[in-house]
Amino acid sequence: MGEQRLTPHIEAGKGDYAETVLLPGDPQRAEWMAQTFLEAPRCVNRRRGALGFTGLYRGQPISIQATGVGVSSFLIYAHELLDYYGARTLIRTGTCGGLSAQAKLRSLVISQLARPENAENGQVFGLYDADAGPDPALLARALAKAAELGIDHHGGLTICTDIFYHPEARTRYAEARALGALAVDMETSALYRIAAHFGVRALSLLTIVDNLVTGEQADYSERQALFTDMSRLAFEVAREGR
Fold first, then answer.
1. Which one of the listed residues 129, 210, 219, 229 is annotated catalytic?
2. Known catalytic residue: 210?
3. pLDDT tens by residue, the chain, 242 residues
4. Could you identify which of 137, 142, 172, 193 might form a hypothetical disulfide with 128, taking C-beta atoms 3.0 to 4.6 angstroms apart as the criterion?
5. Domain spans in the chain, listed from the N-terminal domain onward
6. Strand partners, 57
């Protein structure tokens, strides 16, 4: 282990994370991804149950770090990975709700632009205000690779919100749908904005686990299996993106 430089939320030592980090929200998904795709994965963080792993994917060092739910939790882990551990590429491997009947349950959304839901509950927090997008090269690689792998995917606008449970339910997204938004999640806009702030590369890949138009939803018991295409794409983009 390298020189210790602990943060309040990550116990890993300096050098324990690769420069490329995949960011699922769920610690169980992080562990599943590590065990399924990485060679010789080692757990580098257990603090607060936010599991982190580093291993090799086709000979390239890649890390995985769970970020929890919502922008506040996400930004803590993203900031510490960038500021303390030297991460230079962040790829979110998350879940989302579909906002279009064409964005089918279990398909993949590649976020080409992330926009806060609104000023009241759409992630307005000073330094990172503004629409933001992914690294152009990572985006192009993801779209091409998804097509090559035969993955059912959609590229386009995603909306981000801080509020999961809302009294207006589906009707709150009428404006977003009119703009052509494909999906809604809670972290992508924060990812793109903090990446721009630190001058690093970022991309958000999202699996649709419920559709707010059709009312369909995936059962939690099948969710790890749902993430195979997304995870495979993330690792391939990360491997080719050096």
1. 210
2. yes
3. 445 557 889 888 889 999 999 999 999 999 999 999 999 999 999 998 899 999 999 999 999 999 999 899 999 999 999 999 999 999 999 999 999 988 899 999 999 999 887 655 545 444 445 568 999 999 999 999 999 999 999 999 999 988 777 767 667 888 888 888 999 999 999 999 999 999 999 999 999 999 988 889 888 777 677 899 999 999 999 998 66
4. 193
5. 20-240
6. 60
Locate tokens 């721009």: which residue? 196
Please report, as a single letter, which amino acid is at residue 112: Q
Return the number of other C-beta atoms located less than 10 Å from residue 169's C-beta.
9
C-alpha closest to that of 94 among 239, 211, 2, 226: 226
9: DSSP letter: S
CA–CA dist 102, 94 (Å, integer):
19
Element (H or E) spanning 201, and its range? strand 201-211
Amino acid 79 reads H
CA–CA separation, 222 and 213 (whole Å): 21
Closest CA to 193 of 96, 128, 137, 97: 128
- Residue among 174, 208, 195, 162 nearest 69 (CA): 162
